[in-house]
Amino acid sequence: MRQNPSFTLVDVAEIRRVVELNPWATIMSAGDDGLVASHYAVLLDETRDDLTIVGHVGRPDDLIHGMGERELLVVIQGPHGYISPGWYGDVQAVPTWNYTAVHLAGVPEILSDEENLVVLDQFVARFESRMPEPKLMWERPNDPAYVERLASGTVGFRLSPSRVVAKRKLSQNKSPDTIETVIAALTADGPYANPALAAEMRRAQDARRGGQKQ
Hints:
- The chain is α+β, with helices and mostly antiparallel strands.
- The protein has a single domain (about 5-85, about 90-170), classed as Pnp Oxidase, Chain A (Roll).
- Helices cover about 30% and strands about 30% of the residues.
- Strands 6-7-3-2-1-4-5-8 form an eight-stranded antiparallel β-sheet.
- Helix 5 (about 175-185) runs antiparallel to helix 6 (about 195-210).
- The longest helix is centred in the middle third of the chain and has 16 residues, at about 115-130.
- The radius of gyration is 20 Å and the shape is elongated.
């Protein structure tokens, strides 16, 4: 990510919000045969109020990543999108890309089988609860033997990051009027319409106006 202090996100509550709303993560490590990446969902550890996350990988990804022994980098990507220089008006400008991203690094703790089942249950409940008729992990026609057999093919982990880098590049280096113009362009019809990114820009702009450090 671009290392510009203007784009640094430091507020833990805001970083947690990015993780909460964007659970699909890229998990990277330096394996025996070079760099390796996997893609899994993660959740904030609901027993903590920091940036600890929980998740699971399918076997043999635990061995590929050296789970519990090597440092992982977990990358979480929020809304992002193309920003046209034409949205800045008749001034010198080049295209750019706005984004929000969080990097969490550390050596994960491997969960016990019992803890892994609890986390898997939390995953199912979190995402299935939005369905009209949720089908939860322990409900029929699933039985305990079936659930435990599937869970045995996964390895649960908890990552309390030792390093956190969070960025929110949302045109903060532009004037308030220019930011409003970009937000309007992202919410209008067009090839680069991006309401989710516009909403993040609006949130950052409102915080900036309110003098909040994020």
